Amino acid sequence: MDQTDPADRPARRAVEGSLKSLKKVMAILDCFTLNRRSLSLSEICELTGFPRSTTHRLAASMREVGLLEQEHERDAYRLGLRLFEFGSTVLANLELHREGSGLVESLHRLTNRAVHLAVFDGQRALIIQRTDAGTERILPSSFVENSPAYCTSVGKAILAYQDDEVVERVIALGLERHTDTTLTDPQALRDDLAATRARGYAIDNEEHQPALRCVGAPIRAANGRVFAAISVSAPAWEMAATDIEELSKVVTYHANLISQRLGHAR
Description:
Beta-Lactamase, alpha+beta, 6-stranded antiparallel sheet, 3-stranded antiparallel sheet, 20% strand, 2 domains
């Protein structure tokens, strides 16, 4: 039985209505991926299950405020520049981004290898800082790159410390094969994540890109939750399997330093 004061019911219904609309907006944004950069109205309807009239109304509103752009010649939609602006603002204010910059540079100088700093969005690893081998240039704060969590060292270094339901959600999204060594069997991935927890670092053994080997270590927030990771990567002929254990000590050391700067007490 609804015991809400009758005078408050209209306000509550308005809030609930706004929340439903916001969830629908998020559902439309979630339709766009690196492989689905441009979508027609019909494709958005199919992906969301929304009626065409609802989808058209929401898409028009989102276009009006810059969340979507429309390619008139194809009558297709893509993500708007307003989202890029929001992302740049988030990164500029992200404590990890500020505290990690110096240590990304330090790890790069010590190893002379490519370094990646990533956060977890619940499904994928988002690379927020990166250096390439042989250069100390860090990509600007507006740079964000999506990477699979199940076949990259930064992704597995984070995923290994998540609850089982998070791991199963990633598995349910599909373990796409990228190379001959990608772990596409769910149990093989679970075993690999258990091994990652046991040794304290993750290995990408040419699983995401052919002939590229990576070592990643988890980064913890002040409350101890693993939410990010840092890694080094190099061609397999430059990073032999026998080099990984020694290299992991340097990567883990830098990951722990970042964790400490974020307030985590080991």
